[in-house]
Each structure stands twice: as structure tokens, then as C-alpha cells.
Amino acid sequence: MSGTRPASAGTAEGERMPRPADYGHLASFPTRWNDNDVYGHVNNVVYYAAMDSAVNAWMIARGLDIEQGDAIGLVVSSSCDYHASGAYPDVLEVGVRIGRLGTSSVTWETGIFRASDAELLATGRFVHVFVDRESRRPTPVPATLRVAMERELVVAGGEG
Predict the structure, then answer these.
(1) Which parts of the chain fold into alpha helices (H)?
(2) Among 20, 42, 49, 116, which residue's beta carbon has the most beta carbons within 10 A?
(3) What's residue 155's pLDDT?
(4) For residue 18, how far is the Cα from the chain centroid?
């Protein structure tokens, strides 16, 4: 599929395609042999796994306790647009930034690139709502995590 879609595919009219430098955090995600599907490219579910893994690893590294913490993030919405194909043994590079940071929710924006040539393969978006582990009721984003988000990942104008 690489090279078969116009440069503007998956973006608003006239909008520039994202580059790795547009993201505050980049995470490596090596593909595996079994990530390829019968069509010879990385299956769509792998892109979702890459996004989820990159975001959760970032939060854990900044203090989110996924096993014992009072707050957990639940995915309430997600989407992914595909721009080109990856295939094993490609190493993917997942860019992470925040498009909107609310009181209890975060809208993550991701770009998935082939590490060898920085070609944009996919762009994704998903929303975490932080909830109390026990009650499952919305709770504010944990304070230390919010500080790291604001410092490292919030896109200008993305708070609200």
C-alpha cells in the first residue's frame, strides 16, 4: 500500500502529514513474524497494540501504578487511519502527544512511523477516562501524571 494514497489521505484538506518530531515522546515497537496477515502486511490490530503499549509505557514510567494505584485509565473511544503498510521485520516508531487534557480525560494522538525511513504508516486517536479503581467513577488525572503530561506531551491549545 505504500505510495498508493495521496499525501493528504487521512488528514484534513491542506493539512501537513505528521512527522516524528511532531510528538513529545517516541517509542520503538518491533514487529514480529506473526504480526503479518495473509495480505503480507502488519494487521490493523497491531497498530492498536502499538498505540496502547506506547501510551501505557509512558504513563507507567512517570508513576502510574497500574496494579495498586487508586486511578486507572479506561479507553472509551479509539480510531486509527492507515496511510501506508508496514511488514515484518519493520520496527515501528510510535509518536505520542496529547490533543486535549481535561479534568479526568485525556485525548491521545499517535503517529506510527517505519523507523528505517520515518514513513507515516498510521495516525491514531484514543480517549482515556481516569476512574477510581473500586467505584469506576471518573476521577481527576493523577497530579504527578498531569504535570508530566503538561510538560512533555500537551499540544499547544490542547487543555480544556
Answers:
(1) 44-61, 143-152
(2) 42
(3) 78
(4) 13
CATH of 20-152 given 3.40.190.10, 3.10.310.40, 3.90.1150.10, 3.10.129.10: 3.10.129.10
pLDDT digits (tens, 9 = 90+) for 77-132: 999 999 999 999 999 999 999 999 999 999 999 999 999 999 999 999 999 999 99
Query: Cell digits for 114?
Result: 517505519
The pLDDT assigned to 156 comes to 62
Helices (H) and strands (E) in the chain, counts: 2, 5
Break the chain into its structural domains and give their ranges: 20-152
Using CA atoms, how far apart are residues 91 and 18, in angstroms rounded to an integer? 18
Question: Cell numbers at residue 66, please?
Answer: 497500574
Q: For residues 143 and 160, what is the distance between their CA atoms, to the nearest angstrom?
A: 16
Name the amino acid, one letter, at 48: Y
| CB-CB contact of 18 with 120 (8 Å) | yes
**CA–CA separation, 42 vs 30, rounded Å?**
11
Cell 481516569 belongs to 130
Three-class SS of residue 57?
Answer: helix
